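Two proteins were folded this term; both appear here.
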Amino acid sequence: MIESRLQNLPAKPGVYLMKNSKDEIIYIGKAKLLNKRVRSYFDGREKGDHRAATLMVAHIKDIEWIITESEAEALILEANLIAKHQPYYNIRQKDDKHYPYLMLTMQEKFPRLRITRHTKDDKNLYYGPFINSYYIRTILDLVPRIFHLRECGYKLPQEKSRPCLNFHIGRCKAPCAEMVSEEEYMKGVMGAKMLLEGKNNEILADIEDEMHNASAELRFEEASKLRDQIRAVHNAFAKQKADKANQADLSLDVIAICRAKELATVVIIEYRNGVMCERRHFNLENRLEWDSPEILAEFLPCWYLKIPMDEMPYEIALEISLGEEQETFEELLANRVGRKIPVVVPQRGDKLGYLRIAKANAEMLLVELQAKDAKYDEMNRSIFELQKELNLSSPPFCIECFDISHLGGTEPVASMVRFVNGFPSKSDYRKYMIKVAAGGDDFASMKEVLTRRLTRLKNENADFPDLLVIDGGKGQVEAAFDVLKEMDLTNIPVIGLAKRLEEIVFAGKKPSILLKRSNVALQLLQRIRDEAHRFAITFQRKRRKKSLR
């Protein structure tokens, strides 16, 4: 089939889609001449140094193509198709939940500024992600202080309260106590929005007008407060000289990339009105181990077709040229915004300095990404090692561990911790008060807690864990297995980890096993068991303290 498809390729610009035996799209590319570009993948003369030919061609079972009028149109179509299908061998953005955003909660009647690690498609405004945690904390402290935004978590106007300390020290206008109208409060919100967008000159002009008007109308106390606001904004930007550009009207995106084998990090620093207003970073999967120009040539069109028109820069500075793709990229930008956006590679001057900042950030983030991936690789190794040692039918990606805690039979409680892919999933942790079993009866307590847990999972039609771990010995494991038999869930494997010898205990007649202390499977079980024990004993101590009051 491939041979006949290659013969029919047209000598025109367009986009080609490569599919595997399951009819899944594994790669999307664009070409000035489809016939030459696609045939090059299957040209034996290029296989020696053509990464795509080496890694991907063996999986290609079919090829489709879409003809376009120009290479620029093909670039737009390629970007849209990649965003839609996310093919395995194209440059793909990795998860970016680690870094924080600032969220202005416009969905609330009296908005506030918060830190979040998740963005949603809602009415709230998001700024970020921010690389420097000190920088974001500084903004979080500065903005409410200048514009008197509330910092409480009340759901207004339903929940009302007396004014807190922030009101009395002039930091908040106390919407919780109806001390300010919604219209007046929203003036501060709009000021905060402009500050976060880098429009500090417009903010200062507006506040100065208000100050002069208040002074002319003899409202001197209000004028003095506005004067303090102006000083606070000036001071805030004076402390951020490292983030300022020299040109007050500068609108520039500075882009740097750092790559290592199958990983790459792209950093985009956005300057608007002469101020660094945004730092964005993207962790990319580079499965074909492309060079930096190739990565940028595919990633940048996807990015600049996605962002809103009013966020487009007037100029883009790259650390490296896109080569033959640069002219096509500039044409794409011009077609989108109706004006030329120069794409330059600075050799000297301020822009080169901005690029060095972006490059330093990219290098730092890549090191962090490599460490994170290495940690995940280690965790994956421990999961598969655990599967081998326990002779499980499938890898235990989801593990739940239970522990019982009490003091001489008093205040008995239990804990359940869940680990997913070798890492704690703390939002899934659960605490239990023992309701039926007598205090000190660990076996009955284990039965009660496990029954409650599995019954809830069954009622909610939720996923069961791949492995149950009990902090205890043979008796606790047998109690847990009795529950599994009663609920017809014996397909879920259950083990115990006895502390004295770190012995792995099984239900029934299967003999226990001892693993070496250096074994990564045992170390994973120990981490999970110790976390369950910590969680249980912390809850038990709180219960005990409460009973003594």
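Next, the second protein.
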Amino acid sequence: MRYKNEDNDLKLYAVAGTQTVLLAFDLPKPAKKDEFIGFDVERKDSQGNVRKINGSKHFDSLIHDATITDPQVKFTSLVQSFFWKDFLADPDQTYTYRVRAMFGTARLFNTRFESTVKVTTEPFSKGKHSVYFNYGVTGSQGYARNKEFGNKPIEQLDKITRQKALDYLSRDLYHEGLIKFLNQAKTKRHSLFCAFYEIEYGPFLDELKIVKQKAKDLQIVYSGQPGQNKDLKDPNAEKGNISSLKAKGLFSISHKRTVANQPHNKFMVLCFDDKPIEVWSGSTNITLSGICGQSNTAHWVKDASIAGKYLKYWNLLKDNPSKTTLAALSEAIQPNVDLTKLENGSYVFFSPRDLPVAKGATPPQLLEYVNLIDKAQELVCMIFPFNYDPVFKKVYDKERSYLRLLLFEKVSQAKIAKDKEDGDRDLKVTAGAVLEKEVRNFIAEVTPKTVVKGGILFAHNKFVLIDPLGDNPVVLSGSGNFSKPSIKDNDENMLLVKGDARVADIYLTEFDRLFEHFWPRYLQKILPKSSSFEKPLDEDYLWFASYYKKGSYHNKRGKMFIVMKGAKKG
């Protein structure tokens, strides 16, 4: 939900997802002599509890003044940005944010402007779409900061602490999302049809065993490729798909998929009285690493039409058809169309498709994604968990007036995209990274490789957002990696949701959380001498200049919030 309060000189704007709130401020331009030193931001919940959310940066003049012994003075913190965030919100809660513009010096400042905005975060379940994000090991500082977890491998924790750690890392994706979806199927009027690239996580398989006992039908398509069926000698490592399914008594209702280059789907179709009603989709593999290690997305759709398309696709998939046969059905279910001309609504695009594709050619569907991106007016946000296909580099290398924020799994991929970034103020690039040593208030971090024996270490999400704050926001999300193989060689599914502000707000707020989290870590990785974590607050009154510079990145970002569509009075 979007909110605004424009009643005062200090104008406030907010976008509320389920567990993250983005804030933007606007103020008449101060003169340098006015000594505008920053914003003070606090949050009050519906029970009256007040929390400062000013961040962790401080003023050097106070830190190094030996005469100051009061920690409240020495560690004074303000927000020196017109954009802020609350990453610790809860779903379906009402918060009032009070923002005060402070003028003066680091030691002595006073309120000159003040305003509040009242927001209510989105509930997990509402309407057709519910969206879930985990934290993962590297998606926040939480696992490192928690003294019980202490960056330890999961198997080294005692049983109670281990469960606490799993609950934290999976956030609400597992219990609130995945298990609630499964629990619906535990009646004799329900059936569940699954397609999973990796299905190895023991607790989930235990829940599937209950579904098998209680539901009318349960069937599973799984990847039979060697890469998903390795049984490592490490007793603490998960087994491959076949061994995992056999161990839980689910192999007899499972169907091996071998023909695709990568049988890469991660979806379930729920039926009631043999009629498809709901779908679970997204980027999350059913492994410990997928649920608790790397960052992932899950998308629950309550739409009989969409569920029917998934079931039609699944019914052929279970027979292990040729790529050509499955591609024909994929395109029959949803033909290629000009994505820029779609009406508002929900769509699903299955792969493989666009066969045959000439050697070296770009599949038409991938070109449609590019064309859709290039019609943006204000903002594009995109995550690349694997390859950075040249077709996307071409479009992002072009000078464009809209803002582009790209998040990569690997620094090497980000460097390719960064070729043009230094000369393009509207393109910002970051990549997954950890803080390798303690810096001021930040604890050293580890990756999923240490904690859950994960391979993908940072961002495994697969989505793109186009003008998320506009009249007709577009969200494209699913299992595909935005690559040529994901269109022509793999089994994949991608949901496209257009015109749904709730969906766009949830994805945008979580994308911002990930981008902001990885940004200083990425800078420190590529610029070891960077002071991104240690840079103190500005005391020369220069910090706000770029916000007022017409055409600057910060100026454009501010205007995007000011003119966002559908904002209600908060």
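The chain is about 25% helix and 25% strand. The mean pLDDT is 94. These notes refer to the second protein only.
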